[in-house]
Design brief:
Oligomer: single chain
CATH topology of the largest domain: Arc Repressor Mutant, subunit A
Largest sheet: 2 strands, antiparallel
CATH architecture of the largest domain: Orthogonal Bundle
Number of strands: 4
Order of helices and strands: HHHHHEEHEEHHHHH
Strand order of the largest sheet: 1-2
Helix content: 40-55%
Shape: elongated
Strand content: 5-15%
Number of domains: 2
CATH class of the largest domain: Mainly Alpha
Number of helices: 11
Radius of gyration: 22 Å
Distance between the termini: 75 Å
């Protein structure tokens, strides 16, 4: 067949400039790829590498709903729309049986919810943490379950970063532990240390603002002195 007889390509090529690269372990190509003989499993596996890389936090997981909500993935499964859910189910099951993904079920408000982790040291630790009951609801619609593996105790965090505990502070810390994700508390204390503002009022001001405005509102901010004045002013108001 001559080149001019070939159909026009559906993919126009990668654009110029910097592109985000998704880390995929070399072992995937050396060991896993030769074993995978199901196209849906391959697509779901590669999708998991991409989607988990785009998430934040130490412990990252996927839900079946995350896959079903992605229209590009749905179209890419190559089956009629009414069969997409079943195709994704089968592909996830194959990836779990192969050991690429790990799955754990937690009791959700609407019934059991399955969480899928990549089979990495962090993923295996998360599965163990769930088995030990070390998880809770985060209040984040995108990552509703918070895995509390290797998360420092909030009282130890306070003593390490801020200062000695008092009974009044301890009570406020207990309330904060239920009101905010542990990752938020840890980052807010780190910011307090960076800005030389070691007080719980300052930390709580950061947490309150994140809850009101969103944590990513501070992303890519470089002016820490501006942040320090801003949170200090807000704390005193």
């Amino acid at each position: 067949m001559k080149p001019e007889d070939l159909p026009a390509p559906s993919f126009k090529g990668f654009p110029e400039g910097k592109a985000h690269l998704v880390p995929v372990p070399g072992l995937f190509f050396q060991e896993l790829l030769p074993q995978i003989d199901h196209l849906g499993e391959l697509k779901v596996t590669l999708y998991a590498f991409w989607r988990l890389d785009r998430m934040e936090g130490t412990i990252r997981y996927l839900r079946k709903a995350d896959l079903l909500e992605d229209n590009e993935l749905r179209r890419g499964m190559g089956v009629p729309a009414r069969q997409v859910a079943a195709a994704i189910d089968e592909s996830l099951s194959r990836a779990v049986r192969r050991g690429t993904l790990l799955v754990a079920a937690v009791a959700g408000e609407d019934g059991p919810q399955e969480l899928y982790f990549m089979n990495t040291p962090k993923g295996r630790a998360a599965i163990q943490a769930i088995a030990n009951g070390e998880w809770r609801y985060s209040g984040d619609a995108l990552q509703p379950v918070e895995i509390r593996e290797d998360v420092p105790n909030i009282f130890r965090l306070y003593e390490d970063h801020i200062g000695p505990l008092t009974p009044m502070i301890a009570e406020e810390l207990r309330e904060a532990e239920t009101a905010y994700p542990a990752e938020w508390v840890e980052e807010a204390m780190r910011i307090a240390v960076e800005n030389n503002a070691r007080s719980w009022r300052y930390v709580h001001a950061i947490l309150s603002r994140w809850k009101e405005k969103g944590r990513h509102e501070r992303k890519n901010r470089r002016d820490t002195e501006k942040d320090r004045r801003r949170y200090a002013d807000w704390e005193e108001s």
